[in-house]
């Protein structure tokens, strides 16, 4: 029963926003079977709305005084949504608390299915969660510690098969993988591939990071030896990516207000072999742009707090969704006010970055699908800061097909073409937005080094790859 009680405590911590699923499971040495615990927590969250409805209808937690709601969630999940059932002895008192209500729980579950017009448990999962399940497993190769070629060889030795980039990533089969067509340091695997206990992950040779989350560092792409700032850095994946692209040269100041999250950044970037990062516990907004130590800062990466409306490849966003329908019916004005407050904060971050005397390339990104945090912020920045302009498309992932929404930026197709968007259901990534501001008169609005990779990826499209061997493809992209 200790296993279930621990799972319940993790749900409680998630509800109090005391960490993420990954941090509370993978990062906790007290969790013995991390894979099993991670699966139970994630699966419980997937069905949380239905499970809460069952708890309320049966009043099981009111009747069984010793049964906490969080523990009831995981126990009822295993009772009703797994073939194995609750995996403890039948004489365990807390299991008996649930078994006593088994008939009523099953009856109420049947009523819910009838009401929703579905027949299977899978159909009870929201579309947002289903989309998350379809997203492939992305693994960024950490070039501080290995190369794409060596990583590919390591996976092949384990029985994985490298295939040409498929017409549809949903076609990827278990034990198959490919090199991403847009990012040369990204490998793509079947969505159910689990690397949390894999040697390459534990040693920092691969980093589990959503594809769209890798866009900002690639767009920023500071050259070797320069000074850069990651303004909202924790947990550190983007910071370590910048470090890898800079080949551990120069210097990166990484800011975060949260000491716990900054500690996680130190741990993750340390494991990744980063040696050019200076973690700063404090607010980027409180830094003095004219401080001599920042005199040579030219590149800034800004990924400030946002609504997170584009995030679907993790289940942490479900923690507060006790009643999806009621959440959907929240007062629209409250949503508008929240987005307004967020956009004002986001604008302040960008404008502060523009005060650094040598800043010449500033990348602003969000994991939001709302124009208020994306195109509208860009529009406001351009209006109030004439010394900066948007970097042209040929330096902002030029081969990526989905760009900004012209209608949200004064019907200006040229400006919309300069920014990048992703849509989860269609692009099989988290929802993301990336823009890049460059100082006028600076010779930095040119094609970035990574775009050479984009061009190579295009020549290796499924139609053209037939003429090339896999060996040649690996040599080109490693």
Q: What structural keywords apply?
A:
eight-stranded mixed beta sheet; five-stranded mixed beta sheet; Alpha-Beta Plaits; 478 residues; alpha/beta; 42% helix; disordered C terminus; single chain
Task: Summarize the biggest pleated sheet.
Answer: 8 strands, mixed
Mean pLDDT: 88
Going by CATH, the architecture of the largest domain would be 3-Layer(aba) Sandwich
CATH class of the largest domain: Alpha Beta
Q: List low-confidence stretches.
A: 320-331, 449-478
Overall body shape: globular
User: How many individual β-strands?
Assistant: 13
- Overall tally of structural domains: 3
- End-to-end separation: 48 Å
CATH topology-level name of the largest domain: Rossmann fold
How would you name the CATH homologous superfamily of the largest domain?
Vaccinia Virus protein VP39
Tell me the strand percentage band: 5-15%
Total of helices: 22
Catalytic activity: a cytidine in 25S rRNA + S-adenosyl-L-methionine = a 5-methylcytidine in 25S rRNA + S-adenosyl-L-homocysteine + H(+)
InterPro entries: MeTrfase_RsmB-F_NOP2_cat, MeTrfase_RsmB-F_NOP2_dom, NSUN5_7_fdxn-like, NSUN5_RCM1_N, RCMT, SAM-dependent_MTases_sf
GO molecular function, one term: RNA methyltransferase activity
Family: Belongs to the class I-like SAM-binding methyltransferase superfamily. RsmB/NOP family.
